[in-house]
Fold these 2 entries.
Entry 1:
Amino acid sequence: MALRKIVTGEDPLLRKTSKPVEVFDEKLWILLDDMAETMYRNEGVGLAAVQVGILRRVVVIDVGDGKIELINPIIIKTRGRQEDSEGCLSFPNEYGLVERPNFVTVKAQDRNGVDQEYSGSGLLARAFCHEIDHLDGIIFKDHIREDEPEIPRRRRRRFDHSPR
Ligand code: ZN
């Protein structure tokens, strides 16, 4: 495994739409392993491939309950609402209150191309939404309302950046 460099700031790559994965080969497995290592090393809870410069629909998530790998993920069900502060490994030291569904079901393929379904609430639901947004060039800041008051420092919680 190897650490990959995280794309940050206003890099135009973060605004691009990622392409579906069609080949489930060793190159994909290396990418997944490298993404996981990069996520853990940076104390993140999720990472999308575009954040390491690869425009493919690949996501890794671990909110503390074990690693989930999502290939070509689609959100198929949402329920409820939650609001909490969010940040992003690609935007260090930037945070905002973001409303997300409180319960999310995702359909995706695993690293072998087999269909899987995952459901999560709370932080995991937030992670699904945040990371899948990345695949369509959407960043968390797009969801912050202009009139939002600044979040007090004690309430700031990094999201795909160290929430624990
Ligand atoms: Zn992010």
Entry 2:
Amino acid sequence: MAIKASEFVWHSGRLVPWEDAKIHVMSHVVNYGSSVFEGIRCYHTAKGPAIFRLRDHTLRLLQSCKIYRIDVDYSLDELVQATVDLVAANKVAPCYIRPIVLRGYGQVGVNPFNSPTEVYIANYEWGKYLGSPDSDDGVDVCVSSWNRLAPNTMPTMAKAGANYMNSQLIKMEAILNGYAEGIALDVAGYVSEGSGENVFVVHKDRIFTPPLGNSVLPGITRNSVLHLAHELGIPVVEQIIPREMLYICDELFFSGTAAEITPIRSVDKIIVGRGIAGPITKAVRKEFYSIVNGVTEDRFGWMTMVPVQVKQPVTV
Ligand code: PMP
């Protein structure tokens, strides 16, 4: 999907024109992948733009920085406010928000400590990533021949740009073989996650998802699914999942900022359940969209309203 340029990008405390948000080719990040980032959605509701779990995403960004010993000059509150200010200035919703912290232009060599830290936040119009919100057709996926990152190599609890080299291998293989997405196993052969989504298995009226120890990103949407399932009275178990559960389970779905809640129709050409979104997937998805679209009360305090009238709400 092509990026639709907005007017401004937030760069280290200032709003700069979109075209001016540039870095040098010899920046540390270009050579050694030294960046961490977030992906956040802002929905268009009747009361105006509403950002989903902004504080939690920003906290994960700062935790990714902590893991990589990146000192950030801005507090959680400042970055949250900067994001709201940016969305208000650009006046586009629904949109995707991309905060990035990177090691910039300074010194050569792997040692990152002497390259300056730069913080950017961009936002731009964005619609669906995988399936469609109302469709009960799921996506067709494969189990990837690529494993997820091995423990103690690249930390998967950090959302680092470099992790997405692994995600790209998973995604390219899936697409070239005619699938929408790939599900990767961890190095022990257990279900881990998609290239950019967490995975949920529904089996005998319970929801299963791999625990954080199976090389998964602690997804904010994953956490939201856990809350919603709890509220709906559906038992959720964070448990190691063998690959073959993907083939014999009743329902299967992805969660993620981009993917939202996307049902999975088949895995390696084996139809999941009845081949359409099942009742538990639909129940969780319904609650999720009701909250993010501002249709039901935001009882979890997940939405940050942006006090601005958008130029022209985009239909997605
Ligand atoms: N796993 C990976 C590898 C991802 O890139 C993402 C998207 N950020 C997710 C899971 C889902 O996380 P979230 O719900 O926070 O978007």
